Amino acid sequence: ERERQASAQKVWEEKKRDQMQDQVNQKILGHLQRVAMEAKTTVQSDWRDQQLLKLSKETIDQEIEESHNLIQKLEANIAVVDTKTKEIEQWLEESKDSSEQQVSVDDLCQPATKLHSQMLNLSSENAAITDALYFL
Fold this sequence. Notes:
Mean pLDDT: 91
Strand content: under 5%
Radius of gyration: 49 Å
Number of helices: 3
Order of helices and strands: HHH
Low-confidence stretches: none
Helix content: over 70%
Structural class: mainly alpha
Shape: rod-shaped
Number of strands: 0
């Protein structure tokens, strides 16, 4: 009877050990699956972030290149403006010197074509007639 009890005890202990081993294996498997899923999610997130960073880097590089080109164009435009400013200042200085010479109004307004000349004459005659009527 003792042997039977010992043998039953041994069988019961083996079953219990197998059950516990299965439970431990299930827990380990579940934990490993969770860790694998978290690692997969982290890797996917990191990969997505890396792609976004690459895209942002390309965009920033393009904007830097455009900025350099714009700076060069602006510097060229500044040089042109400086040159033109000097020319205007020189012209103004020359104009001050020549302001003593009086230029006739007729010389300032020269029509480009015969038609323009006729229109100018008509306009001046109209103004003269209007002035005469006003004073009468």
